[in-house]
């Protein structure tokens, strides 16, 4: 029964449904007794609340009359309910209607009592806040800040609208609340710009009390993404066919990522600090993870670079040629990211923005390697050390590449051994004895590269492929 009465008071069940349920169970007498007792308790609570706030309420005669009339009405209702209970005890006449009426009156009484509780709380906060002055800086949470925020929340819910006592005191307190929110907002956003987690956390205490920190944080994160994309567009708009430093502009654009990553990390760390203080465990950190800024940057950068490449073919070629340098700029930017962002994942995501250009670079490099092998096997080069020089040159280049690009080349290094074997088979008798002797040189060079850069089974794979080549044949009779 207590649970049903609580649901009735809070509006979770309608009086008519409550009455139907009571009559169905046949315990209407118990329900009437419980309602009567509850009404008596609410009557006492109303009287106590009015006395506790008499000074404020006496300034507003209409409020006093309203509450006095309500108390009188409740007293009359209690008397009626008691009489009805006595009548039901002797004779059951329309119990459904009686229970429904009693339930409706209890629900109305509870609503009035709930409003008065809120008014009582508001007036108590006003009394405790008499000496509060406008703030100019927020250095952390305090009782004064909490009280102002609680008053603001009460006002925003609108439960006390139309009650003179509330309206009069709210006019006095509203400027203090508005000032607090404005200072907190300004301090929060400035702290994000300077990546000052301490000041941002202090300002966030206000939003925590106002129960909108999640919303404020999400909005701040999205604003930083928008600012980053706008800055990127502004920088890249100068890239064109006539700009000699177009590639440098592209690299400089990449280096804006750490700036905005630091800002969103401040938002993330601020939220973590509030959770650590035990203020709330209901915050959703997923939309605030700093790694999202890397993903957003990669998507926007890819769109901008591909648009430039379509307009200016020469720049597209230059980008492909400068892939190692561009990737090194990625690495430089990643080194400056906050610790909360995974480095390897960031490099993977950023690299995805230049896939077409990187594929073109690797394809060109692969073609150059095959061309040199073909020249050797066709006897077009008499330089017996060409493969050693080639391998040394390739190793030197790879030393300047980042780990991601080196890894992307692994399959091409292994394929180089297979290509050598394939070229040899197709060339047949035209292969010079000198060229065939280069197999061990190539094997040694590629194995050294694999051992240095990969430390896996790739070296053995290369060795197996090249060692499967037949030994060079002896010159034919009569041939010098």
Number of strands: 0
Secondary-structure element order, N to C: HHHHHHHHHHHHHHHHHHHHHH
Total separate domains: 4
Residue share in helix? over 70%
Question: What's the main sheet like?
Answer: none
Low-confidence stretches: 474-480
- Rounded mean pLDDT score: 80
Number of helices: 22
Coarse morphology: elongated
| Relative strand content | under 5%
CA radius of gyration is 40 Å
Structural category: mainly alpha
What is the first-to-last residue Cα distance?
A: 115 Å
Protein name: Conserved oligomeric Golgi complex subunit 5 N-terminal domain-containing protein
Domain Conserved oligomeric Golgi complex subunit 5 N-terminal: 27-128
Pfam family, one: COG5_N
Please provide a written account of the structure.
- This protein has 22 helices and no strands.
- Helix content is 76%, strand content 0%.
- 31% of the residues are buried.
- The protein has four domains: 125 residues; 60 residues, no CATH class; 142 residues, no CATH class; 90 residues.
- The termini are far apart.
- By secondary structure, the protein is mainly α.
- The C terminus is likely disordered.
- This is Conserved oligomeric Golgi complex subunit 5 N-terminal domain-containing protein.
- InterPro entries: Cog5 (IPR019465), COG5_N (IPR049176).
């Amino acid at each position: 029964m207590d649970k049903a009465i609580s649901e009735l008071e809070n509006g979770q069940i309608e009086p008519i449904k409550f009455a139907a349920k009571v009559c169905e169970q046949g315990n209407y007498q118990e329900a009437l007794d419980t309602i009567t007792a509850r009404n008596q308790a609410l009557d006492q609570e109303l009287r106590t609340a009015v006395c506790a706030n008499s000074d404020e309420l006496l300034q507003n005669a209409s409020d006093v009359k309203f509450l006095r009339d309500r108390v009188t009405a409740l007293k009359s209702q209690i008397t009626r309910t008691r009489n009805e209970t006595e009548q039901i005890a002797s004779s059951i006449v329309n119990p459904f209607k009686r229970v429904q009426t009693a339930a409706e009156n209890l629900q109305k009484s509870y609503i009035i009592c709930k409003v008065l509780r809120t008014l009582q709380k508001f007036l108590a906060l006003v009394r405790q806040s008499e000496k509060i002055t406008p703030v100019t800086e927020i250095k952390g949470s305090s009782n004064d800040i909490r009280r102002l925020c609680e008053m603001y929340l009460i006002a925003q819910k609108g439960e006390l609208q139309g009650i003179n006592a509330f309206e009069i005191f709210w006019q006095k307190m509203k400027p203090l609340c508005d000032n607090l929110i404005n200072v907190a907002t300004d301090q929060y956003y400035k702290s994000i710009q300077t990546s000052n987690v301490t000041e941002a956390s202090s300002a966030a205490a206000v939003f925590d009390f106002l129960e909108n920190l999640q919303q404020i944080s999400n909005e701040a994160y999205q604003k930083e993404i928008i600012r980053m994309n706008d800055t990127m567009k502004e920088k890249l708009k100068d890239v064109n066919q006539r700009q000699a430093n177009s590639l440098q502009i592209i690299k400089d654009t990449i280096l804006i990522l750490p700036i905005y990553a630091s800002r969103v990390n401040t938002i993330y760390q601020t939220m973590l600090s509030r959770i650590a203080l035990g203020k709330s465990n209901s915050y959703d950190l997923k939309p605030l993870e700093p790694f999202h800024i890397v993903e957003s940057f990669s998507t926007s950068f890819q769109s901008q670079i591909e648009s430039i490449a379509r307009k200016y073919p020469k720049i597209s070629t230059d980008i492909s040629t400068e892939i190692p340098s561009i990737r090194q700029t990625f690495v430089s930017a990643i080194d400056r990211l906050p610790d909360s962002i995974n480095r390897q994942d960031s490099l993977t995501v950023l690299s995805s923005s230049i896939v077409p250009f990187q594929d073109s670079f690797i394809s060109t490099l692969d073609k150059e390697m095959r061309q040199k092998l073909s020249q050797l096997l066709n006897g077009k080069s008499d330089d017996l050390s060409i493969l050693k020089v080639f391998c040394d040159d390739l190793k030197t280049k790879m030393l300047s590449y980042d780990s991601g690009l080196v890894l992307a080349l692994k399959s091409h290094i292994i394929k180089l051994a297979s290509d050598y074997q394939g070229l040899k088979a197709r060339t047949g008798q035209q292969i010079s004895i000198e060229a065939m002797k280069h197999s061990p040189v190539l094997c040694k060079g590629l194995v050294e590269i694999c051992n240095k850069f990969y430390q896996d089974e790739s070296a053995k794979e290369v060795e197996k492929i090249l060692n499967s080549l037949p030994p060079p044949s002896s010159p034919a009779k009569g041939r010098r």
